[in-house]
Specification:
With about 650 residues, the chain is mainly beta. It has a single domain, classed as TonB-dependent receptor, beta-barrel domain (Maltoporin, Chain A), CATH 2.40.170. The chain has five helices and 39 strands. The strands form eight sheets. The protein has a 22-stranded antiparallel β-barrel. The protein is globular.
Amino acid sequence: MTDRRASRFHRLIVLGLVFANALAFAERTPLTDVGIEEMVVVAHHKPTPSHLVGSSISVLDTQEFANRITFDPSALFRNLPSLNVSQTGTFGSLTSVRLRGSESNHTLVLIDGIEANDPANGAAFDLSQLAGASIDRIEVLHGPQSARYGAEAIGGVIAIYTRPTDSSDLTEDRALTLGLETGSRGFHQGNLNVDVIERVGAAVSRSQFSMTRAITNGSNASFFGSESEGFRNRTWRADSSLRWNDGSEIGLSARETRTNLDTDPQDFAFPATPTQGLVIDGDNDTAARQRLIGLHGRMTSGSWLHELKLSQNASKTHSRVNGEDDSGLKASLRKADWAASRDYEYGKVSHSLALGIQYEQRRFRNFNAALPSANHKARDKQLSQFAEYLMKNDTRSVSISTRRDQNDRFDNLTTWRVTGTQAVLNQVRVHGSWGEGSANPTFFELFGFIPESFAGNPDLKPERSKGWDLGLSGEDSDGHYTWDLTYFRSRLNSEIVTSFGPAPNYFSQPINRDGTSRREGWEASLSRDVGERITVDANFTLLDSHEPGGRTEVRRPRRSGGLTTHLAFANDKGKANLSLIYNGVMQDSEFITATPTDGVEIKSVTLLNAGISYQPNERTTLFFRGQNLLNKEYQQVFSYRAPGVTASVGVIMTWR
């Protein structure tokens, strides 16, 4: 069977499942009788019970964060299936995420509903920006999602919530929390959080403010020399909202992160040296700032719920070499979203329809201190219309969504997504989805410029993707275990890659690659209670990711997974965890002229992380946490040394 026929065949399977669900809405035993149902926010235009979501999803909630006590939030992402993390050296350095083999700028990241992908630096999200963040919940939506979320959602969507997603049960309260932490490699962190909930007339007001300061001497990102790369982080967040009994709400949120990171350069000296093409010690540093601001409101008019969101994502990156200004990027993304939705019942089937309009404007500036011709400004805008229809009862659901993008720089585009799920046995369901994805060239790819190193390409075309998945999931009636097994497949066309010139400077430029990049694989997850005090979480991913010529794509291990054991002790006053994270053999690029190839194999690694916390009283929590406790020497990006063993202790005090 040819690839084209196979693709059509698999698509027909998914569509057949969906429409079979639609025709079969009838009496059937509910999938679960568990009293408390987990609600997923990111999958559809309204919160939906997890067992009625057709897409493949992964969730980490507040309770899990409290139990795991990990070193930084990015470590938790390594425990999720089909999600690979690549860190360029020490803690705080650029940390990219690839979902289901997609590129790092093909996963859309939302923080409290605001797009957080860096509009200046490649439209990817740097997980190091989450250092010290106060996170309530993370939801990961797998597969192409452009029909709901637009560009950059080829691999999927990661939604990060720093406040509770369910504000229906707010009682008056005031809390002040102070956290202090210190550890190896000169690591120190302080956090202050204030939370006030009070009644204001007929409404309930909730205001939160948090501030975090973290510093570390870091470790040496180079395998040569002994210079450590330090990292400094300052983050503050403010959030205030008013909610009325009829569901109406208005709120304003703001978040700013400022970081300073010491970095090491690659050796591209000419004539070539013994370390040519490798990372070496150097006096480089990068300062970055990102600010997210959002205003949201909702109200009901008749049978329709209206929601309005205004947001701005502004970022700036500034690089220095040997103490002198070198280059920088500055950009902003402004969005206005309006959506109206209504629900109605027909027998035992509920229906929900959402219609909306989105307007966005991007601005970009590239500047260079030594070369005025490298300075450049650009902007574009886009108007989009979208619709989603969701039909469900107790045991099955069907959703269809579509979006029309009208961009003033690229051709107009329409994308679709279809999902469905059906209970097939007691506590077992089948779920499937098919969708389209797109990613516009970034401004840096179009117009960026680095003297003697990189030049943008204004003739680039957007990337296009189609993908589907089909899986089984289940749980027992008491919620003691849950499991999921999903097969996924996607095809990417017009992929934007970097074309490198000859030595000695390897001058580069982005191009649209001919042919199709192919990604497919299996993702599995299991969570099980072992007795009353022990819980085990496990996941495994098998991935095949290839370029058009059949070459394996870089920084995507074929095998990866994790195993975490949680233990509660001392009448639940104490919690401990032990995590094994496995990252298999993967390929990467190398720029060493003395070798006959431009690729290199990065060895597999298994990391051991642990954490323990104890509450001597309701006000105080003491904790210890550590990463890479076996002190493995490894790399996630070729020639960048990952940190060795790290450990820290801390205390959290809360006053009410």
